[in-house]
Amino acid sequence: MRRNEPPERAALRVAESSGSGRGLSFGAAVARARRWLPLIGGSSVLGTLSMLALPLVLAETVDAAVAGRGVAAPMAAAAGLVIVSAACELVDAFAGAACTAATTAWLRRGMVRHVLALDPHRLRRFDTGDLTARVSANCADAARAGPAAVGAATGLLPSIGSLAMLAYLDWWLAAAFIAGLALVAVVLRVFTSRTTAAVAAYQRIQGAIAARLSEALAGRRTIAAAGTVERERHRVLAELPRLREHGVETWRVLAATGAQSALVGPLTTVGVLLAAGLALSSGRLSPGEMLASAQYAMSGAGIGALTGVFATLARSRAGVRRLSEVTGVPVAEYGELDLPDGDGRLEFRAVSVEGPLDGVDLILPGGTVAAVVGASGAGKSVLAELAAGLRAPDAGEVLLDGVPLRRLRREALRRAVAWAPERPVLVGATVADAIAPGRSPRPAARAADAHDFIRRLPRGYGTPLDQAPMSGGEAQRIGLARAWHAERLLVLDDATSSLDTVTERRIVDALTAPEAARTRLLVTHRAATAARAELVVWLEAGRVRAVGPHERLWAESPAYREVFA
Amino acid sequence: MRREIRYGLSGLRRRPTAAVIGWSVPQTLPATISGIVVARAVDDGFGAGRPWTGAAWLAALLLAAVLGAVGGRMVFLRIGDLVEPFRDRLVRRVVGGSLSAAVAGEAKEGAVAQLTRQVEIVRDSYAGLIVAVRGFVVTSLGVTAGLMSLSPRLAMMILPPFFLGLLLFVATLGVSAARQRRAVRADERLADRAASVLAGTVDLSGCGGEVHGRSLVAGPIAEQARAERALAWVAALRSLCFVVGGWLPLIAVLAASGRLVEAGFSAGTITGGLLYILYGLQPALNSFISGVGGSGLRFVVTLGRILDSTGPPEPVRSAAAAPTAPPDLEARGLTFAYGPHSEPIVHNLDLRIPAGDHLAIVGASGIGKSTLAGLLCGLLPPDSGTVSVGGRDVAGLSPLELARFRVLIPQEAYVFAGTVRDNLAYLRPEAGPGQIASAVDAVGASDLVERIGGPAATVEPSELSAGERQQLALVRAHLSPAPICVLDEATCHLDPVAERRAEAAFAERPGTLIVIAHRTGSAERARRVLVLDGAAVGEREPAQIQPAS
Question: By CB distance 3.0 to 4.6 Å, which of A51, B58, B400, B408 could disulfide with B319?
Answer without folding.
Answer: B400
